[in-house]
From TrEMBL:
The keyword Secreted does not apply. This is Nitrogenase iron-molybdenum cofactor biosynthesis protein NifE. Coiled coil: none annotated. It comes from Skermanella aerolata. This protein may play a role in the biosynthesis of the prosthetic group of nitrogenase (FeMo cofactor). The keyword Metal-binding does not apply. The gene is nifE. One of its GO terms (molecular function) is nitrogenase activity. Belongs to the NifD/NifK/NifE/NifN family. CDD domains: Nitrogenase_NifE_I (cd01968). Residues 43-442 form the Nitrogenase/oxidoreductase component domain. GO terms for biological process: protein-containing complex assembly. Pfam families: Oxidored_nitro. Pathway: Cofactor biosynthesis; Fe-Mo cofactor biosynthesis. It comes from the Bacteria.
Length: 469
């Protein structure tokens, strides 16, 4: 039942919020109702689709009104190196008549059409608010379709009204645990097999990390879910180690895989020179602990030494121009701490960062890096962000697209570092790209122009003088 699954996700012991609760409070779950507008960042359906759609060779069918698919289509810049089927929008396009008569037959017909026309390895079927309210049983339809068509048809039961985008991320992860992971065996295994969990290959940035893992000899058994393949995700239970990139979204997947299959996991970051190096070391150390040859550690250290030297050499030309420039970082999750170290390595000064989507471990890392007095905000209203930009005299703001207009109204340079970005910032290559983008943004002559008074606001020339004088 959906209610039981939501409660199970709320009770997730790996969640940092739950770790601070008593046993009695944990049983209540996160039952506090959202204020109007608080879910503007996305509903549960949106979160589930974000988590699963980067499995690129599968078909993703939205059972609901066309706006649910239209509003969520391609809203993240996840890239694929193989199939592009994930970018095709499939929907049952429910109408008023479907609401009256039910749409289960229409759903089966849509699944059958997709299978016959595209022959994907699997079809994910997303429940939305309208069919959930009228009682369409997508799980029964998916089971019937799977038996008839001989394909995995995966029900994703995360209608928008059950909660926020983050809850939907976790429900998407639960779908993989219940219906996908462990359903296939890989063709072969090696002592170097790992899964990457919570990495979405935004702007293709994981392609800047994969060559390093290839050089180490590490094999990515599955990506969950950026640049993912369905059959690889289905065989993910045979990996030796799991790396968790975004624990806020998919910690339940990593913890339950450790519980069910004995796969240890760690949380790491691909952002910044030192954090990238620490991640490679952790992967090597855990793999050796699970039976990989000991020379993996020495090979990894050689790669780190070469890549760090190359990265610092490429960053050096920017340091003189950027030293002392003040940055307001308004993001969350792993970027709340990993980008701090990345940017300070280039000489930038971080005046504060948001931690709204960060875990307890993220916040502790940030305190360790910057000290207890460093400015961290759980939630900041737009007018407070504007005040911060004004009072702290920030030179640039790094955030997501939803807060860009605050910076633009304050006439402060802004750079997108969230999911809509088009530049890859991961790995040693990514930190150089990030610093280059900051330098270009700060150097843009438009900021000098917008800060000048408008011609009609400029002081009138004194009597006997011309405007040119």
């Amino acid at each position: 039942m959906l209610v039981d699954k939501v409660q199970e996700v709320f009770n997730e012991p790996g969640c940092a919020t739950n770790q601070d609760k008593s046993a009695k409070e944990r049983k209540k779950g996160c039952t506090k109702s959202l204020k109007p507008g608080a879910a503007a960042g996305g509903c549960a359906f949106d979160g589930a689709k974000i988590a699963l759609q980067p499995i690129a060779d599968a078909a993703h069918l939205v059972h609901g009104p066309i706006a649910c698919e239209g509003n969520s289509w391609d809203n993240r810049g996840s890239k694929s190196s193989h199939s592009q089927l994930y970018r095709t929008g499939f929907t049952t396009d429910l109408s008023e008549l479907d609401v009256i008569h039910g749409a289960e037959k229409k759903l089966f017909k849509a699944i059958k059409e997709i299978v016959l026309k595209y022959d994907p390895p699997a079809v994910f079927v997303y429940q939305t608010c309208v069919p959930a309210l009228i009682g369409d049983d997508i799980e029964a339809v998916c089971k019937f379709a799977a038996d008839k068509l001989g394909k995995p048809i995966i029900p994703v039961n995360a209608p928008g009204f059950v909660g926020s985008k983050n809850l939907g991320n976790k429900l998407g992860g639960e779908t993989l645990l219940d219906h996908v992971i462990g359903t296939r065996e890989p063709e072969y295994t090696t002592p170097y097999d790992i899964n990457i969990i919570g990495e979405y290959n935004l702007a293709g940035e994981f392609w800047q990390v994969k060559p390093l893992l290839d050089k180490m000899g590490v094999r990515i058994l599955s990506m969950i879910s950026g640049d993912g393949k369905y059959n690889e995700v289905a065989s993910a239970h045979r990996a030796k180690v799991n790396m968790l990139v975004c624990s806020q979204a998919l910690v339940n997947v990593a913890r339950k895989m450790e519980e069910r299959y004995g796969i240890p996991y760690f949380e790491g970051s691909f952002y910044g020179v030192s954090d990238m190096s620490d991640t490679l070391r952790n992967i090597a150390k855990l793999l050796v602990g699970r039976g990989a040859p000991n020379d993996l550690i020495a090979r990894t250290e050689t790669i780190i030494t070469e890549e760090e030297a190359r990265a610092w050499r490429r960053l050096a030309p920017y340091k003189d121009r950027l030293t002392g420039k003040r940055v307001l970082l308004f993001t969350g999750g792993v970027k709340s701490w990993s980008m701090v170290t990345a940017l300070e390595g280039a000489g930038l000064e971080i005046i504060g960062t948001s931690v709204k989507k960060s875990t307890k471990e993220d916040k502790e890392r940030l305190k360790k890096i910057k000290g207890e007095e460093f400015h961290m905000w759980e939630d900041l209203k737009p007018r407070d962000i504007a005040a911060m930009l004004r009072d702290a005299k920030a030179d640039i703001m790094l955030s997501g697209g939803r807060s860009q207009f605050i910076a633009l109204k304050a006439k402060v340079p802004w750079l997108d570092v969230n999911q809509e970005r088009h530049v890859a910032f991961a790995g040693y290559e990514g930190i150089v790209a990030l610093v280059e983008e900051i330098d270009k943004t700060l150097s843009n002559p438009i900021w000098r122009q917008v800060r000048l008074p408008a011609p009609w606001d400029a002081p009138a020339p004194a009597l006997g003088e011309t405007a040119a004088e």
